[in-house]
Amino acid sequence: MPKPYISIIIPTLNEAANIRHLLPKVKSVLKDYTYEIIIVDKHSKDGTASIAKRMRAKVIYDDKGKGSALIRGFKAAKGNIIISMDADLSHRPLELKLLISGVEAGYDVCMGSRFLTGGGSDDMPRFRRAGNKFFVSLVNALYGTKYSDLCYGYRSFSNVAARKLKLKETGFGIETEISIEAKKEGLKVMEIPSFEKKRIEGVGKLHAFRDGYAILKTIFRNFR
Ligand SMILES: Nc1nc2c(ncn2[C@@H]2O[C@H](COP(=O)(O)OP(=O)(O)OP(=O)(O)O)[C@@H](O)[C@H]2O)c(=O)[nH]1
Ligand SMILES: [Mg+2]
Questions:
Q1: Which of 73, 142, 170, 221 has its CA 20 to 30 A from that of 23?
Q2: Global pTM?
Q3: Ligand 1 centre and the CA of 60: distance in Å?
Q4: Nearest bound ligand to the CA of residue 12
């Protein structure tokens, strides 16, 4: 069977110090594949876009939030398999192979999970962990899913599946919306253990309370 073409979508806001380390690692893991790396940048002021271009990634721009950046990236992606990944080295490039093999094995969407055996997080303060747990339980109760994780963006999609998802979330509610939409569209979903490392450089953009409230709104807005 021919190797699939892979699209890696990375939203960025001031991640220059991280992507200069991330991109070579991603390229090394994908050396036996044909692939594109699409950086969706919010006009970062720290040179993120020029570093990415120098490292032969495609750069497109989006000025809203992480969600709208991912939606734009999905639209631009040409791969048979599309993977969403953070720029801050929290997502281990070696796990790309697990995410690829899940789609190759016939799943529409493979979601990294920090709460399956083998997964974990070095980057989740206690209140965030509690919030995530609450949101997971709420989504599972309302939508009849069996997810173990929700607000985690390391995921792979078949191109066909990605195009079926009707996504509107502009911010950090995007992962939640994807999880809900995958269920609504009847997609075949698998969770894969994933270990989230601490952000290496720069500052996190997620604000637990503001974005937690947005996630809650996402959960209820989609419930009908
Ligand atoms: N294009 C774009 N990317 C964003 C935006 N906000 C965050 N990102 C990127 O989305 C990814 C995840 O954001 P993070 O700030 O790492 O969120 P987080 O992992 O929940 O927070 P930390 O644990 O503090 O790192 C990173 O690659 C960010 O650069 C945005 O408004 N626009
Ligand atoms: Mg992060």
A1: 170
A2: 0.97
A3: 16
A4: 1
| Ligand closest in space to the Cα of 44 | 1
Sequence-ordered list of residues with C-beta below 8 angstroms from that of 221, at least 6 positions apart, any chain:
none
The amino acid sitting at 12 is: T
Chain centre to alpha carbon of residue 117: 20
Per residue in 129-155, pLDDT tens? Answer: 999 999 999 999 999 999 999 999 999
Q: Distance from the CA of 1 to the center of ligand 2, in angstroms? A: 35
Measured distance CA(49)–CA(41) in Å, rounded: 7
What span, in angstroms and rounded, lies between the C-alpha atoms of 6 and 133?
31
pLDDT digits (tens, 9 = 90+) for 33-76: 999 999 999 999 999 999 999 999 999 999 999 999 999 999 99
Q: How far is the CA of 140 from the centre of ligand 2 (A)?
A: 24
Structural domains in the chain?
5-221 (3.90.550.10)
- The ligand 1 atom nearest the CA atom of 151: 20
Closest CA to 58 of 75, 39, 35: 39
